[in-house]
Design goal:
Length: 298
Amino acid sequence: MILRETAWRVFAGEMNLSTLERKGDDEKAPTYLITPLGTRLSRVLVAGVLLDKENIGSPEDPLWRARMEDVSGSYFINVGRYQPEAATAMASLETPSFVAVIGKIRTYRPDDTRMYVSIRPERIMKIDAETRQRIVLETAQATWGRLNNVKLALSMPDASIDDLVTKGMTREEAEGVTEAIGFYGTPESTRYLKLIQSSLRMLLPDKEIDLGLPEDVSDMPDEIVIDEKTTAGDVDKEDLVLNMLGELDKDGRGAPMDELIRRAATEGIANTELEEITNSLMDKGLVYEPVLGRLKRI
């Protein structure tokens, strides 16, 4: 029986920062992409909003390129003839829609300064909002666990892999964290805690709730400072901007940004504040940018 690699839950914001690759020990072993938090990625299970797709091949020999977005950024997806099930599913998917993808990590280096990371799906499927929320929650929990592993390893600078295993990590986790720290150094933990907070708030009906990060959790990194919680005024302005987007989207292609800026100004929302509000709405998965210069409600 052939054992498949674990399909890791990982946000785009962690995956797309990864630049370290390692080949497995066996001749036929996969190449792993090691993230700054020590995840050894070969396969992933991710979920988000499918924003756009394009068949750059032909109807007979399709080659799909697509972009899916979560709370932290974009996943780039490539599907070709060797993934017939995924290619058939991609052809029938509408944009925007909630989708989940199980697939293998692929990397591309056009030069020595940049790595591009994409997913080659084994399966891609339309999902409902409840399933998306469950995957987002699982990914937030996994990210939280990886942060704790990094903190533990940093607190034991001379620890061996076996030492970290005795502290509760799996051997795979211990090896990944050790390699990540050695290559990337100490990660910018603020980035990941903000990401966890944004993902959890997206799941909750009350966006003002205090999640207790990190003040109420003694074993999280001490240096993290989380954004102040959203005020009622902020929520009201977000609702106001959402209503504007609906009113200005007269042709189904999204609201023009120049018209949104003018309308927001009449409501006392300056351009810089509008940018913060629209970024927050995109982080929550409530709006997206179908084309440059337009925003559209989901």
